[in-house]
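thought: fold this chain, then report.
action: predict
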Amino acid sequence: MTTTQVSRRGFLGGSAATAGALVVGFHVPFIPGQSHAQAPLAASPEVNAWVVIKPDDTVVIRIARSEMGQGSLTGLAQLVAEELECDWAKVTTEYPTPGQNLARNRVWGNFSTGGSRGIRESHDYVRKGGAVARTMLVQAAADQWKVPAAECTAAASVITHTPSGRKTSYGKVAAAAAKLTPPAEVKLKDPKDWKIAGKPVKRLDTVEKLTGAQVYGMDLKLPGLLNAAIKDCPVFGGKVKSFDATAIAKRPGVKKVVRVGDSAVAVIADTWWHAKTALDALPIEWDEGPNATLSSADFAAVMKAGLDANDAVVGNSVGDAKAALVSAARRIEAVYAYPHQNHATMETMNATAKITLSAAGTPERCEVWTPTQNGEAALAAAAEASGLKPAQCEVYKLHLGGGFGRRGAVHDWVRQAVAIAREMPGTPVKLIWSREEDMLHGRYHPVTMCKLTAGLDAQGNLNALHMRISGQSILAGIFPQNIKDGKDPVVFQGLNAAGPEASIGYSVPNLLIDHAMRNPHVPPGFWRGVNLNQNAIYLECFLDEVAFATKQDPLALRRKLMASHPKHLAVLNAVAERIGWDKPAAPGVLRGLAQTMGFGSYVAACAEVSVNADGKLKIHRIVAATDCGHAVNPQQIAAQVEGSFVYGLSAALYGECTVKNGRIEQANFDTYPVMKLDEMPPVETIVMPSGGFWGGVGEPTIAVAAPAVLNAVFAATGKRIRELPLKHHSLKKA
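observation:
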């Protein structure tokens, strides 16, 4: 296999632009108590980059994507194992590293795990990895028996020569198979013939999580480890003016106080608590900069002006919506708004970094241990912060205690950890952000407003629709090089023209969807579900407004507009049938519908809610349908859907980050609450893969959680909630 020489500049640019990478040679230092997924690459000969077979028939499957609770580790292993025809009971996994990937000309493909892409964008080549390995194992056995490979079959890690009945195991021929030339082409199974993939097998990472054996970044222990806590300027764009390190120099365990970049100060100590408490006592004077007077009200005013501005960029257009609205027999208009929101991962940002010096006393190697959604982007960040070439750096990926997009595109905490470790060469230093640091220095869900205007003909039919989105662009804040002609395509998720990704599910004769970009100083980020979340609220709730204004059943109106969108309609019909839309709900219980398409999948939900005399909301039940094309693990899909509703409903009920004096006000869970167990409704999941495409499952259903509930709230109270979160609104009937 050839190795391509990649310049540091080219690697950094490529990793930043893609938020990932498309895999072996460096040894991973042993971590006591580590899981299989964190273990060093197996010493046994690899059959190919994806598969290692040990003499005892243990199958080690390499997983390039990150595991953060979503189940990709198990799903990807299922796909490889399916084509490998191995014994699932003997399957284990491990992560290759981004440094190894680079050294081997990126043989493991894309390391990025986000946008529900983990399985849907790698299923083809990981399946081929399993099929190639199986072919090589069978060929090795045939060579030993001196028979044609076509006379041999493989199943459950056993190879059988059909005419003679001779058998051997994968472990016995793996070493010989590893020496063979891989076949150029292999045929993959038809999904209808799957035996491991497509089945609800148990997750491979559950036991270690239940027993506490799983090592997360905050758990990591290395010989001689020191700890660091950090405090960044509370106003985005501000800087450190001064600090007095002597004031805490004699506090217990303190080793060093360091400035990190222009805007942060860190304390290094023997324990994290010593570092954190010393940092709290450190006198720091900030230069808060030009953003120190800004507030959420300022952003709202700018976005409101954008609703009628002339500088909007078109995302989707059919016919002449503006002219049709002028001539409409009746017009309906509404303005919706969606706030900044935090990822609030249970595990805060953290990384352990170590700088090793050469004999001459100059840095020659940088190693980082961290939970990341994108190993190669983390490697790029480490290289940039250390000043070393990527080949001199390595990142050892750990399971994530939550990601939701925060640990994907931006690796600010990795840069900080490396900068701190440079101050203590030869010593591993673990940086852990406090909860407050994590909440105040996130990369937030973008803030937007949307004005929707519907034009009805004389018969009350929807003839024109204009959606004007005003607000923040994620790409402008993270990947500005991907803005083309002023357009951020991510803004229009769920509203695109017909196609395989995030397309609108309705046909309107005259349609205009455009965006007036307005970017506050609060940094945006990809947040689970991204722009599909607010776009589904805007469109699905407004269609309910149109249905109410025209005295139509919300389901009937949608069906009329979805005649040319069969997959959108199929999931909507599925939830309507399961909920019993054509039958009355229990007394006092009202229903709401929503559907959308995003991340390659079609989803819908129907919620049942009640609101008592005091205005207290109870969500009784949610039915959700997902068509993701192919379902690798139906049980895990159901779990993902349930989890997405926890996240989506938390956002709808409580999720809001506000800005005062240039800084985020919500610093912990007391001011940024999430749903509690007694608030969570039962979720009935309908997994209905129609085949022919590969969609994601981790993010799409988040988007239908809020609009389904909001539409049900209107049915229950007559109150139309157009601005989230719900906690700000009284639901008492007028």
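thought: worth noting. The first helix runs from residue 8 to 18.
final: tokens above.
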